[in-house]
Amino acid sequence: MRNVSYNAAMLAEALCKLEGFSYAPSDAVYWQHGHSTERDFVYVTTASLTHEQLQQLSDEVGPDRTLLVLCTAFRAKADAYPNLTVKKIPKQVLSRCEWGQDDYSLRVEKLPKEPPRPGQQSLFEEGT
Fold it and tell me: What is the CATH number of domain 2-94?
């Protein structure tokens, strides 16, 4: 699960850069992944958003702030929310992400035992 959140963070950071936002995720507000001004924010999600979810985001953002929402898909009119700009994440950006990978298959070879240093005894000497 750690890699999924790591990949999502990398995606959010890349999209912030592409859209001209500073990547600065909030610890308190889940939809604040970055900002361009003190009242203009960006939210990146790989979810497909419904009208209800976008309406909830719009309500949370409030009338004095704006939010760029970048998602994989949405089921609503993009211009239905005065404080949201809703865009699909470009497929060429998504295709560069490695999703669902548990590890990066690093080869870890068994290393030979280090011989005891002069003046030290081995705990497992032969014959004992």
Answer: 3.40.1350
